[in-house]
Specification:
Helix 5 (127-144) packs antiparallel against helix 13. Helix content is 26%, strand content 21%. The chain starts with a helix and ends with a strand. It has 750 residues and is of the alpha/beta class. The longest helix is centred in the first third of the chain and has 18 residues, at 127-144. It is built from 20 helices and 29 strands.
C-alpha cells in the first residue's frame, strides 16, 4: 500500500466518526470500582442535573403547587426523574415496610404479597428467612419497575407496647432487630433494588410524631436503638437510610448533625440519607448536617432542596462539595445494588405468585407464637366432629395494620365499613380466611361461625361444639398509639362468656402489640398470630392442626399492666379518631399531645432488660414461646478466639428434643456483665431437631453485646472480669444452663 493511501485511510477515520473506535465512559465500565464510577458520573453532570437528583417532588397526589405527576412515574410514594444522557435511571420509589403498596389504587388493579408483621419476622429468629422475605419483596418491586423501597430494614426498637407502628418493627432487642433488618436489606438488594433502613431514629411513639422530642444520652443511645441501626447498616449496607419525623435531643432527626453524620463517619456508610415524607424543615441546616435527599417534597411546607438549595450554594451557605457528595451518594447506591446497570422496568411477564405467597406463609408459620397450651389441647385432631369459630372476621380473612405499609392483596382487601375510613385507615383484612383453611384441613368436621357481635349467639354455638376457637383482633396503625392494652369492644366479655361453656377454648390473637388478657386463666390455649400477612389463614390453620409445629418466639416483652412499662401515660394516645378530623397544623399544635419523652428512663435497658433492672415479672418475656414438643439444654461450652481482630467468641450448646414430635427451638445465649448491669442477649440460633435427636450447635456471640460505649473516648470497651453466660428458653427464665467466662479489657474501635 502506498504512503498516500495510508494517509487517505487515516484521514477518513478522522473525518468519519461512525468509523472511529468509540470509548465507553468511565461510569459505564462495570469492571471499575463503584467509587470510581460514581465519582466520574458526578463529574460529568451539570449543576441542574445534580439539583434534580436531590429532591423527590412527586407522589400519589402530584408535586408541590399541584404539579402534575410526570407520565413516566409509575405511581407510588415518590419519583425522581432520571438523566438519560448519563444512563441514570429514574428513582421509582414505593412504600414497602411489609410489601409493595398501591396507595389509593393509583396503579389500578395492582395487588401484591404482604409479609406478616415485623413481630412475626423477628420472632422467627432466622436471618436466612429474613433474607428470603426481603428477596421476595425485591422481586415484586423490580417486576413492577420500582428500584427504591422505603422499607426492607426497620430497625426502630420497640420501647412501648402501645406504639401504633410496632407491627412494622423487629422487636426490642438491638441484636435481633439489627441482624434481621440486615438480612432483609441484603435480600431486597439482591434484586437490584435499593432498600431503606428506617426510621432513623428513636420513633418510640407515634403520638405527635411530627414534633415530639425524644431525649436520650449518647451512651444510652449507642447501646440501644443506634446499635440496632449500626448492625443493620454495617452488615446490610442499605442503599438508603430514612431519617424520622421526631426530634432527638432538640433537633429534628432530618437536620440532626449527630444522627446524620454518625453512619457516614463511624460506620463507613456510603449510601444516602433521605427524609420521611414531610420531615424536611430547612435548607442550609439540613444539607450541612448531612441530609442527602429531600423526599416527598409535596408533603413539606416548601421545596427546600430546589431553588432554595441552589441559592444557598451560590451564596456559599452550602458548599458545592456538599451538593456533589449528596449526588455522589445517590448514584453510588444506584450502582452498588445494580439499579444503574440493571434498570428496572414494568414487566409484562407473569409473576410467580404462588412462590411469593409461599414465602409469606413460611414466615408466618415460623413466627406465630404459642403462648398457652393447657392439657395439650393443641394441636387439634382432623377427626374432631364440631368446631365453633367465633369473631375476628375469621370467615373472611386476617387483619392487617394501617398506614403507609398497607398492601393491597390479590382479590382485594376486605374493608371494615364500621371503622375509620380516613388515613391511616381504612381498617383492612387480607382475604385469607382461617375458617376456610381450617375446613380444608378437617373436611369431615362441621365448622360453624358466629361474628361475636351477639355474645349469646356465640355462646350457643360454642355450647354445641367440641371446641371453640375465638379470633380476637386489635387494629394498630401509623400515626397514633393505643391508650391502653385492652382489646376493643366486647371481645374480653365475649371470650369470658365462651369460656364459661366448659368447652375447650382456643383464642387466636391478631394484634399489632401485646394485649391484656383478663380471661387468660379461663381458656385452654392462646396463639399470637400478630398480623399474619396475605397467606395468614392457612398459616394459622397449619399451626392449630399441627401440620407446623410452632417455633415463633416473642421479640417484645408482654407487661401484665401498663404500670410495668417505663412510660405508663402518653398524653394524647388513643385519640386517633378525634385527631384525624384536625388538619396538620391543628394536629401539631394540639395542646393535649405529648411534647417530649425522656428515653433515659429505660435508656439502654430496653424491654426485658428494664424488667430485670426493676425486678418486675412480666406476663411473658422476650424470647418466650411454646412448642408441641419439649427441649432440654444439656451442655454449654464457651470458646474464645482472639487471634484475629474479630474477637470471636462461640458458645457450643448441646440440645435435645425430648418430645415425640419434630420441632425447632431458638437457642438464646445471654450474658451478665461484671458491673451488674442487666443481662443482654449475646447470640441466638434457630435449630431443627427430630424427635429424640441431640445436636451440638455453635452460637456466635456478638462482641458489642458484651461491651459498653464510652462517649468520652468515642469507643467501645469490654470490661475486664468474670461474665456469667446463660442458655435460657427466654430472657427472664431461671431454667437452662449457666457457665462463666473471664475476659480481659478489650478496646473495640467504633
Amino acid at each position: 500500500m502506498k504512503i498516500s493511501h495510508i494517509f487517505l485511510m487515516s484521514s477518513m477515520l478522522v473525518s468519519m466518526p461512525s468509523l472511529a473506535l468509540s470509548v465507553e465512559p468511565v461510569w459505564k465500565d462495570s469492571s471499575l470500582s463503584t467509587e470510581a464510577r460514581a465519582k466520574a458520573l458526578v463529574k460529568a453532570m451539570t449543576q441542574e442535573e445534580k439539583l434534580q437528583l436531590v429532591v423527590s417532588r412527586y407522589g400519589v397526589h402530584g408535586g408541590p403547587g399541584n404539579e402534575s405527576v410526570p407520565k413516566e412515574a409509575l405511581g407510588s410514594a415518590g419519583y425522581v426523574p432520571g438523566i438519560p444522557r448519563l444512563g441514570i435511571p429514574a428513582q421509582q420509589i414505593t412504600d414497602a415496610s411489609l410489601g409493595i403498596t398501591n396507595p389509593q389504587n393509583v396503579r389500578p388493579g395492582d395487588a401484591a404479597t404482604s409479609l406478616p408483621s415485623g413481630q412475626i419476622l423477628s420472632g422467627t429468629f432466622d436471618p436466612d428467612l429474613a433474607y428470603e422475605a426481603g428477596q421476595m419483596m425485591g422481586k415484586e418491586a423490580y417486576h413492577r419497575g420500582f428500584n427504591v423501597l422505603l422499607g426492607g430494614g426497620g430497625a426502630v426498637l420497640v420501647r412501648d407496647p402501645r406504639n401504633g407502628r410496632n407491627f412494622e418493627y423487629l422487636g426490642e432487642d438491638s441484636l435481633v432487630a439489627g441482624n434481621m433488618a440486615a438480612a432483609q436489606i441484603q435480600g431486597v438488594q439482591s434484586q437490584h433494588v435499593i432498600a431503606t433502613a428506617k426510621q432513623f431514629a428513636f420513633g418510640a411513639i407515634e403520638t405527635n410524631r411530627m414534633k415530639v422530642d425524644m431525649r436520650i444520652g449518647e451512651k444510652e443511645a449507642r447501646e440501644s436503638d443506634l446499635l440496632a441501626f449500626e448492625i443493620a447498616v454495617k452488615q446490610g449496607k442499605p442503599g438508603a437510610i430514612m431519617c424520622a419525623y421526631n426530634k432527638v435531643n432538640g433537633d429534628y432527626s432530618c437536620e440532626n448533625s449527630y444522627l446524620l453524620q454518625l453512619p457516614k463517619k463511624n460506620w463507613a456508610y456510603r449510601g444516602y440519607i433521605l427524609t420521611d415524607w414531610g420531615a424536611t424543615h430547612s435548607t442550609e441546616k439540613s444539607a450541612n448536617a448531612g441530609l442527602d435527599q429531600e423526599s416527598g417534597a409535596s408533603f413539606d411546607t416548601k421545596v427546600f432542596f430546589g431553588k432554595d438549595l441552589k441559592r444557598a450554594i451560590a451564596k456559599g451557605e452550602v458548599s458545592q462539595g456538599r451538593l456533589d457528595n449528596m449526588v455522589y451518594r445517590i448514584v453510588y447506591s444506584l450502582m452498588d445494588v445494580g439499579a444503574y446497570d440493571h434498570p428496572s422496568y414494568k414487566s409484562n411477564q407473569p409473576e410467580d405468585v404462588a412462590a411469593n405467597e409461599a414465602v409469606s406463609q413460611k414466615v408466618a408459620e415460623n413466627g406465630i407464637v404459642l403462648l398457652k397450651n393447657s392439657h395439650n389441647v393443641l394441636p387439634l385432631s382432623p377427626q374432631i366432629k364440631k368446631i365453633a369459630i367465633i369473631g375476628g372476621k375469621a370467615d373472611q380473612g386476617v387483619m392487617s395494620g394501617g398506614g403507609s405499609s398497607q398492601v393491597t392483596a390479590r382479590g382485594g382487601n376486605i374493608i371494615d365499613q364500621t371503622r375509620t375510613q380516613i388515613w391511616p385507615g381504612p381498617v383492612s383484612y387480607f382475604p385469607s380466611s382461617p375458617m376456610k383453611a381450617i375446613q380444608a384441613l378437617a373436611p369431615n368436621t362441621k365448622v360453624d361461625f358466629a361474628t361475636g357481635n351477639n355474645i349469646q349467639e356465640a355462646v350457643a354455638l360454642a355450647s354445641h361444639a367440641d371446641v371453640a376457637i375465638v379470633f380476637a383482633t386489635k387494629w394498630s396503625a401509623e400515626g397514633f398509639d393505643s391508650a391502653n392494652l385492652e382489646l376493643f369492644g366486647n371481645q374480653n366479655q365475649l371470650i369470658e362468656a365462651v369460656a364459661k361453656t366448659g368447652k375447650p377454648v382456643i383464642v387466636v390473637l391478631e394484634t399489632g402489640n401485646p394485649v391484656e388478657m383478663p380471661w387468660l386463666n379461663n381458656v385452654d390455649a392462646v396463639v399470637e398470630a400478630w398480623y399474619p400477612g396475605t397467606s395468614g389463614g392457612p398459616a394459622i390453620a397449619n399451626i392449630l392442626f399441627g401440620k407446623v409445629n410452632p417455633s415463633g418466639r416473642l421479640t417484645t416483652t408482654w407487661p401484665k399492666a401498663l404500670s410495668q412499662v417505663p412510660y405508663p401515660y402518653i398524653a394524647g394516645a388513643g385519640h386517633m379518631p378525634a385527631i384525624q378530623k384536625l388538619n396538620v397544623k391543628q394536629y401539631s399544635a394540639h395542646n393535649q399531645l405529648v411534647s417530649s419523652v425522656n428515653l433515659n428512663e429505660d435508656g439502654a435497658n430496653v424491654g426485658y432488660r428494664w424488667y430485670e433492672q426493676k425486678r418486675l415479672t412480666p406476663l411473658y418475656s422476650f424470647g418466650y414461646g411454646l412448642s408441641y414438643t419439649t427441649f432440654k439444654y444439656k451442655k454449654i461450652n464457651v470458646v474464645k478466639d482472639f487471634t484475629s481482630d474479630q474477637h470471636l467468641i462461640t458458645a457450643n450448646v448441646t440440645i435435645e428434643n425430648t418430645g415425640k414430635r419434630d420441632g425447632a427451638d431458638v437457642i438464646q445465649v445471654y450474658g451478665k456483665m461484671p458491673d451488674g448491669t442487666p443481662s443482654r442477649l449475646l447470640g441466638f440460633k434457630k435449630v431443627d431437631l427430630k424427635a429424640g435427636e441431640t445436636k451440638t450447635v455453635a452460637v456466635t456471640l456478638f462482641p458489642a453485646s458484651l461491651s459498653h460505649y464510652l462517649p468520652e473516648k468515642h469507643d467501645w470497651e469490654i470490661n475486664p472480669g468474670s461474665y456469667e453466660i446463660f442458655v435460657r428458653p427466654n430472657a427472664l427464665s431461671t431454667d437452662g444452663l449457666k457457665t462463666t467466662m473471664h475476659l480481659d479489657k478489650i478496646d473495640l474501635p467504633d
